[in-house]
Structures are given as C-alpha cells and as structure tokens.
Write a structure and sequence with these properties.
The chain is built from three helices and two strands. It is mainly alpha-helical.
Length: 84
C-alpha cells in the first residue's frame, strides 16, 4: 500500500508517518528540500531521517554550496550529518 502526496500535504501529515509504520519513502523533486531551514525541511528532514529506506529523486542540479546538500544528506545518513 502506498500514497502519493504533495509537499504541502506531507508537511501536514509528517507526524503520522512513523505512527502508521511508514518506513520507506520516495521523494520526487528532492531539490525542494535543499534549504535546511525552509519550512518543508524543518518538518520533513527529522521524520524522513528515521525511515528505513529513503530514495531522493531530482533532475535539477544542486550547486556546489555545502549548505544546499546538507539536508539531503541528513535524510540519507543522519548518523554522518549530525549538525551543519
């Protein structure tokens, strides 16, 4: 069973992901989460980083600034990316 939802909807429901046993997530347009202090990132990164499997998809290049890739790496490997 899977659900497709917008970023806006996922921000509203992100607290329920873990409660409902969601442990795999695929995030399309992951570059929308590159800003680690955006509302989307502040809500979703902590929840997604607890998932068992995370797949990030994006066709948009990420620039060479470390701050733009931090939140994406934190979702994939929270153990390595403790703090920016």
């Amino acid at each position: 069973k899977f659900h497709i939802m917008s970023y806006e909807m996922s921000v509203k429901l992100c607290d329920q992901f873990l409660e409902r046993g969601v442990n795999i997530i695929i995030i399309d347009e992951a570059h929308y989460l590159k800003s680690w202090n955006s509302q989307r990132s502040l809500y979703l990164v902590p929840v997604v980083s607890q998932m068992k499997r995370v797949i990030l998809l994006s066709g948009t290049p990420i620039l060479q600034r470390p701050s733009e890739i931090y939140s994406l790496l934190k979702m994939i490997r929270p153990d390595l990316m403790v703090d920016f």
